[in-house]
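user: can you give me the structure for this one chain? tokens are fine.
assistant: on it. calling the predictor now.
[tool input]
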Amino acid sequence: MSGMVQIGALVPLTRPGWVEAGRHLLAGLELAVREVNDAGGIVGRPLELVVRDTAADPRRAAAAVDELARLGVAALAGEYHSVVARAAASRADALGLPFLCSSAVLDALTEQSTEWVARLAPAQSHGWQIYADFLLSAGHSRIAVAAEPSVYWASGARILRDYLAPRGGTVIELDMRALAPAAVCDELVDHRATALLLLVGHPEPAVPIVQSVRRDQRLADIMIGAPAGQPEFAEWATLLGDDGTAIPFLRYLPERLSPLGARVETALRERLAEAPSFVAFEGYDTVAVLADVLRSHGPDRAHTAESWPRVAVEGTRGQIRFSRTPGISVWQWAWTPVQVVDRDPAEPDRFRILHAG
């Protein structure tokens, strides 16, 4: 095995992890590894992914980081869930193992500033402020959030509140530990909310909440939104059908893909047997960046971490460079393209771009 250069990949592949997101992330990672190896590997050495399923469990992710570090991986890649990525990032930082986080957006990915961790996904504050701009431009100032307890959802609610309050917006928090989906409808009517944002897990309780709201005649005009991107994946359309359309969410794609992006999209579509989500592109770009760094500096962990500020890689969604961004504890690509999109009611498999940041 000494001839291989190994990258550890953290991916949610079983529930309660978001399995569909994990499948897309892994497809992107694997496609890029195959292309790297077809082009001669890392200075003649094959690149290999060592995949570990995090199942959305922070403790399991931290244990996987320990195991992968012992196995001698050159770097870590992946993870979709923010709370899980945070556990992995703090462990990677403690062990001196470079971690390029593909998809998690939580601003504070580590407690203190670290040189070991870099991130491709935009920080939550960046994306969710663009989403808040979209809400205001669509005329929504009384916004209810159906929220479950988690660092990620609490942080999202705070970003929205802080951004909307000075601009005349009100955020009404509905605690989903205490409310059944039907009771959410009464709260929305009582608070005269014009928009409901789903800051909850998928499929439970997001799907039943959407079904309850869509069936309540009093709420015919309310907008349902999902900044965290639940409607991105095919499972959403399968479970909800027409009820799942016209629910705006964030995704990280440009309006038009570059030639590289278009080529990768075709290959991903073949691999997944469906349209690739932005998460699949994040996976591909992660390996593209790590392969570039490993070719330049070899599989030395310290050299990899030192090279984040010098990265300049053509990714599927633009030129990837890392910088230090105020309030962000890791090296950050600032910024991948951000869109607010929804599923078109006339054609649920088609996405409409409603707003771009």
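assistant: here you go. The two ends are 45 Å apart (CA to CA). The CA atoms of residues 58 and 84 lie 4 Å apart.
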